[in-house]
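ESCALATION

Customer reports they have been waiting on this structure for their group meeting. Please prioritize. Original submission:
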Amino acid sequence: MRLKVNGEDRETKSETILQLLKDLNVIPERVAVEVNLRIIKRADFENYRLKDGDTVEIVYFVGGGIVDFKSQI
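Update from on-call: job pushed to the front of the queue and completed.
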């Protein structure tokens, strides 16, 4: 499936947000995730099904503000 993750096209086999985060080596408790402009509750990461063409934004919370996922890789 193809996703746009933080502005970059990615090919993935991840079916859920939790799987995607694990594939990206991202700790779920340290990020906020938005799919198609909708913020997804952390409790829903395991069950939220991604679809081909979804746009996903992942941001880290850090002391004093938010850091975009791209700056962490």
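Sent to customer with the following note: The chain has one domain: 2-72.
Escalation resolved.
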